[in-house]
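Ops channel
N.P.: pipeline sanity check, posting one input/output pair.
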């Protein structure tokens, strides 16, 4: 028998599969479908490191298993190639982004094809292809038509290094997610998508998704729903009022001052009344230099300035209350103004103590108070005693019943929210933290926004038949930093005619953000060459939604929210059949470098998959990456440990020598293995699937023979994990068609013995108890369990002289 030559085998089969178009997706309405999707990469210049393919290996195994189980599988791949990463790379290396992207794609594809993935390459897409982004532009125009894309001049996040505006989702705290620079607020004209119209549905439908709970929770937090009330506090001797947003209208009687955000529009109107304007102005100026994130920090000392000469009226009791400006109130949330209730809110409490303001308790907790203070608080509580309690223990932020609240005394806080709001003419309101999506970038490498500005008609949509608006060639594609994109310098491109009035028009020169193309790409794979629609409706109905979507958890609140938003919009305008794009999602844990850090050129700790494929083989790499640990966990790479999977495959290679006819007494373990590998793949528990295959191999080797039917079944189980070596062994058996087209083996439930056993424990010949355990528990484990069991171990007096263990049946101890 020749030895296992991975290099020759892998090249041979990759070529053959390619020539025979083995993985081409068939349009077959008579078969059940399964759409398995990877988050597509942006083709960076550094190429793949061994961490990248982990998710792709998993989806490949999943796809192969589904194909063998009779499903019609769609498993495509493509390139997310617009946006800052690609452009920054091009700038650094002084090549045109288009050229860089082409080169990087070729490199990525070569690396991927060495690992033996079963992608249908005829469906490859590239977001920078005009035939692709024509539809990205088309969807934008549909949103524009529906009033969901609008122009705004609100100050937005500006990265002074990337020289472009950014959406909230592009920040890591208060830094640009791309380059780590602290962002500034800058007012520039921009296009914005009204994702907030979808906030409630994006939130509600999370429940219907089969996604990891952690990702669902990040989305809930990102959307950040709060139910509360808007209430107006009038300003004394003034015809304006301050509208505040609160989630606790029940505490209105305890509101002892109000606070405006430094950016609040009233500030200007009240200017003449404010006696200490210069101090206030200085404070506003300082606040504008801080980020929202810093302003919200809990541990931070609360600062603020009293607006001297301005007094507000609490509408519930007509009490006069002072007005402050303080930066812990943000302008972008609620109404940008709050009523402060220091007795029941942490931030207000900190501020009130700082400034010596009135603290008035109006909510008494029910039970669970410090027993010492029971009397102080609960026996006829007064706002004075409650306030004392609060000064001692800090604000009470829970619910309870009201005191010192006029007609609402003794009622439950939850029950009076609406009543109090109504009494003062306020309005119950729901707010979301989610902000509209800042959708324009002042950069070159993106989809042009298909709008023409006309002095007479305003912003006008480019007619559908003129799409795509192709990104023009430009001499300098460096960002300008002027708030305009480099496209603004191409007069011949900018100047055009208005589609509505035929007068002079100017093209929009901002481009779309890098998240645009990926917000709907899952739909394009369904029908990638369609030139009249982004996808044929029947095909879309058949293939959607994506059944299994796999990618990094870092996309929890970016891509995964944007794509759900676009998909829901397309559903509303009847362009797609389902309201959610990704039914099931798994997130892939990172592969870290051997030193435990992230793999990066910067740290010089990158392991290149090409080297691993060359030395150990793609099949070994695949088995190793799946065997490293639970799929969703981060694990460190370890080149030494790759020997294990390599040896495993070498042993598999030698099995061909001990294949026999007749019985092999492997039936039970074989059926158990078929059952476990199948269900583990379905559950993304690849590590335990591999370990079961290893257990089976051990049994075969002990047995020194395997009959043909068992061997066939074993090869099929291993095929998704190690497709090349299995295909070779399959061919050596005399088969002429691919193992990957074979049906998945079925197990016979009657052949499985129960997974758990009860093992009687004999001590000096007498049964003293039973150990319930998993099948195949080892002697050591049984002994450990006996020692833990008080009822059994009390019979062990003295040393154990002898142990006889009959696996799964009996253990006998002689003392
Ligand atoms: C009075 C009050 C009393 C409040 C109390 C809380 C507890 P969430 O749940 O995050 O939505 N708030 C409102 N607008 C704000 C802004 N622009 N900047 C900073 N804080 C703001 O928080 C809503 C609560 O946060 C509101 O309810 C308000 O304080 C504050 F015992 O009003 B509350
Ligand atoms: Zn016009």
């Amino acid at each position: 028998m020749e030895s296992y030559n991975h290099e020759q085998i892998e090249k041979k089969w990759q070529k053959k599969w390619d020539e025979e178009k083995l993985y081409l997706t068939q349009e077959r309405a008579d078969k059940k479908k399964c759409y398995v999707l990877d988050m597509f990469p942006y083709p960076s210049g550094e190429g793949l490191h061994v961490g990248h393919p982990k998710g792709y290996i998993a989806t490949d195994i999943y796809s192969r298993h589904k194909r063998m189980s009779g499903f019609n599988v769609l498993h495509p791949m493509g390139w997310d190639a617009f946006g800052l990463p690609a452009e920054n790379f091009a700038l650094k290396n002084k090549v045109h982004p288009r050229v860089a992207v082409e080169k990087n794609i070729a490199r990525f594809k070569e690396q991927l094809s060495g690992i033996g993935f079963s992608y249908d390459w005829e469906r490859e897409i590239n977001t920078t292809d005009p035939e692709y982004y024509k539809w990205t532009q088309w969807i934008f125009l549909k949103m524009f038509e529906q009033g969901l894309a609008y122009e705004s001049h609100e100050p937005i996040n500006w990265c002074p290094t990337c020289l472009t505006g950014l959406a909230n989702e592009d920040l890591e705290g208060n830094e640009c997610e791309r380059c780590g620079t602290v962002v500034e607020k800058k007012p520039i004209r921009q296009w914005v998508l009204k994702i907030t119209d979808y906030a409630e549905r994006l939130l509600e439908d999370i429940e219907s998704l089969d996604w990891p709970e952690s990702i669902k929770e990040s989305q809930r937090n990102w959307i950040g729903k709060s139910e509360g009330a808007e209430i107006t506090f009038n300003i004394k001797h003034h015809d304006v009022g301050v509208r505040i947003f609160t989630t606790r209208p029940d505490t209105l009687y305890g509101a002892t001052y109000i606070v405006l955000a430094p950016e609040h529009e009233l500030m200007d109107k009240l200017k003449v009344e404010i006696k200490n304007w210069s101090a206030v102005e200085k404070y506003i100026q300082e606040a504008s230099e801080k980020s929202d994130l810093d302003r919200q920090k809990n541990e931070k000392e609360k600062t603020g300035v009293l607006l001297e000469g301005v007094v507000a009226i609490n509408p519930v009791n007509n009490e006069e209350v002072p007005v402050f400006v303080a930066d812990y109130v943000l302008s972008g949330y609620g109404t940008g103004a709050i009523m402060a209730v220091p007795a029941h809110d942490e931030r207000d409490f900190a501020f009130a103590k700082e400034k010596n303001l009135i603290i008035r308790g109006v909510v008494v907790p029910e039970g669970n108070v410090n027993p010492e203070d029971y009397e102080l608080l609960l026996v006829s509580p007064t706002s004075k005693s409650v306030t004392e309690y609060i000064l001692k223990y800090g604000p009470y932020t829970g619910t309870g019943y009201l005191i010192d609240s006029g007609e609402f005394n003794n009622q439950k806080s939850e029950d009076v929210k609406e009543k109090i709001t109504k009494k003062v003419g306020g309005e119950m309101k729901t707010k979301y933290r989610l902000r509209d999506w800042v959708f324009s970038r002042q950069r070159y490498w993106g989809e042009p926004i298909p709008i023409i500005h006309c002095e007479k008609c305003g912003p006008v949509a480019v007619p559908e038949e003129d799409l795509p608006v192709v990104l023009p060639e430009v001499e300098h594609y460096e960002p300008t930093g002027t708030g305009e994109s480099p496209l603004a310098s191409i007069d011949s491109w900018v100047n055009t005619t208005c589609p509505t009035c035929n007068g002079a028009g100017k093209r929009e020169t901002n481009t779309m953000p890098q998240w645009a193309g990926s917000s709907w790409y899952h739909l394009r794979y369904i029908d990638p060459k369609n030139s009249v629609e982004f996808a044929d409706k029947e095909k879309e109905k058949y293939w959607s939604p994506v059944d299994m979507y796999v990618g990094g958890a870092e996309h929890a609140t970016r891509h995964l929210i944007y794509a759900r938003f676009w998909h829901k919009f397309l559903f509303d305008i009847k362009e797609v059949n389902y309201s959610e794009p990704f039914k099931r999602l798994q997130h892939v844990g990172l592969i870290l470098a051997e030193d435990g850090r992230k793999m990066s050129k910067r740290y010089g700790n990158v392991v290149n998959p090409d080297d691993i494929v060359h030395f150990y083989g793609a099949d070994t790499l695949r088995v190793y990456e799946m065997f490293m640990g639970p799929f969703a966990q981060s694990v460190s790479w370890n080149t030494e440990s790759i020997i294990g999977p390599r040896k495993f495959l070498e042993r598999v290679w030698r099995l061909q020598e001990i294949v026999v006819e007749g019985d092999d007494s492997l039936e039970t373990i074989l059926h158990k293995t078929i059952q476990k590998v199948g269900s583990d793949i379905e559950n993304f528990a690849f590590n335990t699937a591999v370990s079961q295959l290893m257990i089976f191999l051990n049994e075969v080797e002990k047995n020194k023979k395997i009959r043909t039917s068992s061997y066939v079944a074993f090869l099929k189980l291993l095929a998704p994990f190690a497709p090349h070596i299995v295909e070779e062994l399959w061919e050596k058996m005399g088969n002429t068609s691919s193992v990957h087209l074979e049906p998945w083996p079925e197990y016979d439930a009657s052949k499985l013995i129960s997974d758990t056993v009860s093992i009687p424990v004999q001590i000096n010949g007498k049964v003293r108890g039973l150990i319930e355990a998993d099948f195949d528990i080892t002697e050591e484990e049984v002994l450990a369990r006996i020692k833990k069991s008080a009822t059994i171990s009390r019979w062990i007096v003295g040393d154990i002289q002898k142990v006889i263990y009959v696996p799964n049946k009996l253990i006998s101890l002689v003392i």
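N.P.: looks fine end to end. The chain is about 35% helix and 20% strand.
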